[in-house]
Protein: Putative proteasome-type protease
Amino acid sequence: MTYCVGLLLDAGIVLLSDTRTNAGLDNIATYRKMFLFETPGERAIGIMTAGSLSITQTTMARLSDAIDDPDGEKSILRAPTMLQVAEIVGSMLSDVTSEVASKMERMSQKATASMIVAGQRKGGPMRMFLIYPEGNFIEATADTPFLQIGEHKYGKPILDRVIEPGTSLADAEKAVLLSMDSTLRSNLSVGMPLDFAIIERDALEITRRRRIEADDEGFARMSAAWSEALRNAFAEIDPT
Amino acid sequence: MTYCVGLLLDAGIVLLSDTRTNAGLDNIATYRKMFLFETPGERAIGIMTAGSLSITQTTMARLSDAIDDPDGEKSILRAPTMLQVAEIVGSMLSDVTSEVASKMERMSQKATASMIVAGQRKGGPMRMFLIYPEGNFIEATADTPFLQIGEHKYGKPILDRVIEPGTSLADAEKAVLLSMDSTLRSNLSVGMPLDFAIIERDALEITRRRRIEADDEGFARMSAAWSEALRNAFAEIDPT
Structure:
């Protein structure tokens, strides 16, 4: 499985993904699930993927091919709006899913994938979309400033309590890392290292990118501090 | 959906369930999902249910009928061990599931249910089982002192951090209520009122039973205090 979370805040876009891929418990590997594209000064886009690796890899490969094709109409770096970027990704995902599905059907198996697409192009607003396996999508709004794919339930309570559009980027980084920390603790199929990125409002480039390895001291310290803070908070609550 | 959690601690058994049942979003009702049985001084048993109401109601009705039948061999109040109680419940659940399944198949629908069965009889240890729709089951142990059914993911991180066999009953009550609180906040299909029960070790009766209504002041106060404690804890954590 996977856990990816994206925030659409007043100050910018915050993205976090894990990297664990497994086909059965004895076939575990690390694959990047976050893909960043930019034409500095013109646009910056982040895509995160969850689901069948055969589908997400093929879809991402086709998106890259389309960017390299000078005549292609399906380049996410040339599409005039973020909405059209989401439509390009959705239609490729849908095409790949149905191609793979027809092969899987013979084996009575299923494969699907979903994606989060977020970014901003010059002159347009920041936007973030969750793209379903069928290619349709929903968009983050001020009422719902975060989107999640994969194993999203363990890490949702902290986001529900902390994230709103006015949340600072520093607090947002803490919140998504703690949301991931809860997921890592409760679900074996989500694993380190993590990929983290920020696209600040109107920066039109990937403002920050960071890979957090399994031995990252900062993350381990934050994780331990959060465990202790939770236990202290728990001890201080009066029973009903 | 549903959220039920049971703890098997050194000091006793702690059970908590919600009561929301829905068949579509416009058909929401309150049904008890926790059923307590006792022969004071001889045995005390708690059963919690999740899944299709048609299956859980029929199973519970048959369990009650079997208790009332003086010749019945399937009375959970006469079975010589808790293991046999779990086997009785498992076999009834399995029978009802396959009866209903044969009807549902015609409509291409599926219905399943699972249960948590916990208790102690005189002279035996406290035991707690999670019974799957097929009737087979797993048992809580010192390594895994809690079992959950229904929407279990939102409320698992707090249990993972706090619950161990030596946890006091007062802390256990707080922990399951906070685990439920996270679930209520993040998932609409789980709803108040709540049913709470404690079977203390060797008490051989239901030591405590409590229904927590939607307007319960103690629960609201604890929920608000937990939200504030979480936000304070969050604010105090240094970013990585």
Observations:
- Residues 83 and 127 of chain A are 8 Å apart (CA to CA).
